[in-house]
Write a structure and sequence with these properties.
about 750 residues, Rossmann fold, 21 helices, globular, binds 1-deoxynojirimycin
Length: about 750
């Protein structure tokens, strides 16, 4: 077929092409039966347009047509082989363009996921698909942009601790632009799995334990990645993952079995996905776990009944890596053919990496064992997203800048906003060291690599500014003495004496302790939540020196470190903060930024307590404890200190009953301390008697960030509608049951006095 390369077109207009899903934008062409004539070739940016034998374009190539019409026109021209190709995603690896080029050129592959995306390789592969394949259907390129692409931000669990949807949007906007500039069309993010067990290393990738907050963060991330339209060149399609229940892995062991009762599935695990779907997420990823006996990647109830039929999801579902083939390992399918049948029928549209669809669907279709309609529907879902993304009209990437100064500045801001101050005795922080001596001790003191955290994209160690470097810049007058003291993970204690000597000379000790990046993320789970290696020994020796100790903790999860909390004068949770860890943390330690982060996952006292989370159901005997002590976590969900002190008045309600479908709760919040500060004011609900299924002891229903000057007071109000009082019943129905409820406005999930009201029948 003759190829026609159309000239470049001025940037800007292209963002509007293919944005509309139902009606095409102002047409650059004149449609005509069976094709269309190019009227304004300059309307195509990087456009590679084939003319059909009449010298016309095919209808599906017409950006002016509605997306649905383009999908149908394209689908009807595709052979079974070409349709099958759209359902397969392969890993992009060096040399692949030579090796598998023929497959792409034959239309036998629909997508790549990249280990190391680069616009050049992407464009070469794309050229094979667009110029060499019969119909020129573009590939879609996916990548794990989890907390930044090149500019690495704090891990998602850390980001969620800012309790700030705008911050999430800004961060994901940068992550999207950097990803897109390297040829990524589609990110495998946000991860919206609820995680109640910090042994599970993937708790680092999500927004913690609360479904309501998780939903807000999911929607914010989708808005950040996709913008007003992911057709824009600096935006990417989002992927909600891992659908569903993956975070409930038994024992915290990754990939493990999950048992989640229907009400908990509906009330806890599904809401963040629903929020992300409502925000317009283009795709979802089906999870690895077996959910109530049916693997999530073969689960028709979740993938079709809930996702498509009840929520109206219009995008496509990609399996997690080889999860279709793993239906065999789960003992759910006997062979690839059965795995392909179960996954496709359940609602998995695209198979990541494994080849069950590719090898088995042709004979299954031939034999009528898989319906052609189901098969075509999967193809439609994928074509639709490719067209909405604008890939048919602009298949190639213009490489762009990564790691721009504004992105780095946002990373620094995000670090400071994500840090959670866990303790601050006698206001030792912010530091006032003047010309004194600061001993910075610990394996995270001058560590670059581990500050990046898990899933660090194209982040580079050399981009990271360490805590030592951040503090040196922030405390120019002080004498900063740095001693590593011990290794992050081994038992080597040979540096402890040097560390103790340094501590003895210091006016203040900053201990930088924690976990390596490799302890969290996929396939990284722990059976101990303490400090790895000899770090606890280091802590104990330093704490015994009698100098004031400020501990900065770096980790991908809540740690169980009660002795650190008890013996440090101050503790700052810094998570794995990314490239600007050092400056961002120094901003908080020195008071340039006042801490305002709040933990979004409870901190246990010991690993034996987990799972421990605030929104549990009540038992019949709520006051019984462990032989070793309290049943409550050491630090509750929502907890975090500031450099000032906030006082709460009682929660007052607009009425003792819901009137005109709503109720308003108000509390007076006062900054009673000496400094300005930002408080995260939280609203919790309780339904003490619910006949359709018992409800948690508390549920988050709202929050507001309130910044007050010293002595300033504000009335903080929240209004709930009757619908906000509802829940999913044990038999899977949404119910708003009349009766008594309670509300409290509080600084965290364990404080405040509930006040009651009623909802009339
Ligand atoms: C497996 C992980 O579970 C998933 O989160 C990721 O997106 C895919 N691999 C692709 O890398």
């Amino acid at each position: 077929m003759k190829k026609l390369i159309i000239a470049l077109f001025a940037a800007g207009t292209l963002a509007t092409l293919a944005m509309s899903e139902d009606a095409g934008p102002q047409s650059p062409v004149v449609a005509g039966g069976g094709g269309f004539k190019i009227q304004r070739p300059e309307m195509y940016h990087h456009g590679w347009l084939d003319l059909n034998k009449n010298g016309l374009k095919d209808a599906y190539e017409d950006p002016a047509l509605p997306v649905g019409a383009r999908v149908e026109d394209l689908l009807k021209r595709m052979t079974r082989e070409e349709r099958l190709g759209q359902l397969w995603q392969q890993q992009m690896r060096p040399g692949i363009d030579e090796k598998d080029g023929a497959l792409v050129a034959a239309g036998g592959l629909g997508s790549f996921l990249g280990a190391a995306p680069d616009a050049g390789l992407r464009n070469r592969l794309q050229r094979l698909a667009v110029e060499e394949s019969r119909l020129g259907i573009p590939l879609i390129f996916g990548f794990d942009t989890i907390h930044g692409f090149r500019t690495i931000f704090p891990i998602p669990l850390g980001l969620s601790c800012a309790w700030d949807e705008q911050l999430i949007e800004r961060v994901e906007t940068v992550a999207a632009a950097e990803s897109a500039a390297a040829g990524v069309d589609w990110v495998f993010a946000p991860m919206v799995d609820i995680a109640r067990d910090p042994r599970w290393g993937r708790i680092a990738e999500g927004a913690g334990e609360d479904p309501w907050l998780g939903g807000r963060m999911a929607a914010a991330a989708v808005r950040g990645f996709q913008g007003a339209s992911y057709a824009q060149e600096d935006r990417v399609a989002a992927c909600l993952k891992h659908y569903v229940g993956y975070g409930a892995a038994e024992g915290g062991r990754d990939y493990n079995t999950t048992e989640i009762g229907l009400p908990t599935l509906r009330n806890v695990y599904l809401p963040p996905f629903k929020a992300g779907v409502d925000a317009g997420a283009a795709t979802l990823m089906s999870a690895f776990n077996c959910l109530n006996g049916v693997p999530a990647s073969g689960n028709r109830f979740t993938l079709t009944e809930v996702l498509r039929d009840q929520w109206g999801f219009k995008g496509f579902v990609v399996s997690d890596w080889a999860a279709v083939n793993e239906l065999i390992h789960h003992g759910y399918a006997a062979d690839k053919a059965q795995a392909a049948t179960l996954a496709l029928n359940a609602g998995v549209d695209m198979e990541m990496v494994s080849d069950c669809y590719r090898t088995s669907l042709p004979p299954l279709l031939e034999a009528g064992k898989v319906s052609a309609a189901t098969f075509d529907e999967a193809v439609r879902h994928i074509l639709r997203i490719k067209i909405v993304k604008g890939l048919l009209d602009r298949p190639y990437t213009t490489p762009g800048k990564l790691g721009a100064a504004a992105a780095v500045a946002l990373a620094r801001e995000a670090v400071a906003r994500c840090c959670v101050l866990l303790k601050n005795d006698r206001d030792i922080l912010p530091l006032h060291v003047g010309g004194g001596t600061v001993a910075l001790i610990g394996p995270m003191a001058d560590n670059r690599h581990d500050l990046l955290g898990c899933w660090s994209g194209l982040g580079r160690d050399e981009d990271v500014v360490t805590l030592k470097e951040g503090l040196a810049a922030a405390l120019p007058g002080a004498k900063l003495q740095v001693v590593v003291g011990c290794d992050l993970t081994t038992d080597d204690a040979s540096g402890l004496d040097e560390a103790v000597a340094a501590a003895r000379q210091a006016d203040v000790v900053i201990l930088a302790l924690g976990e390596p990046a490799s302890f969290s993320g996929e396939n990284s789970f722990r059976s101990d939540l303490g400090l790895p290696g000899s770090q606890q020994q280091l802590f104990d020796r330093i704490a015994a020196c009698g100098r004031p100790v400020v501990t900065v903790l770096f980790a991908g999860r809540p740690l169980a470190v009660p002795a650190v909390l008890e013996k440090s004068a101050a503790v700052l949770m810094a998570w794995h903060p990314g490239v600007q860890g050092g400056p961002g943390i120094a901003d908080v330690l020195t008071g340039v930024v006042s801490p305002s982060g709040r933990i979004t996952a409870s901190f246990p006292r010991s690993v034996g307590q987990v799972p421990v989370y605030y929104n549990h159901l009540a038992t019949g005997r709520p006051r019984n404890n462990y032989k070793e002590g309290s049943r409550e976590p050491l630090l509750p969900f929502g907890y975090g200190l500031t450099y000032t002190r906030f006082e709460y008045g009682p929660t007052c309600l607009s009425s003792d009953r819901v009137l005109n479908g709503a109720i308003t709760a108000t509390a007076t919040v006062t900054n009673a301390g000496p400094r300005a500060g930002t408080e995260v004011v939280q609203l919790y609900l309780r339904d003490p008697a619910c006949s359709v299924g018992a409800r948690p002891v508390r549920e988050l229903k709202g929050f507001q960030r309130v910044t007050l000057k010293p002595g300033e007071t504000k009335d903080v109000s929240f209004t709930l509608a009757a619908q906000d009082l509802g829940c999913w019943s044990v038999d899977g129905k949404w119910v708003v049951e009349a009766g008594r409820f309670e509300l409290v406005i509080a600084p965290d999930a364990a404080s405040g006095q509930m006040v009651g009201f009623s909802l009339d029948p």
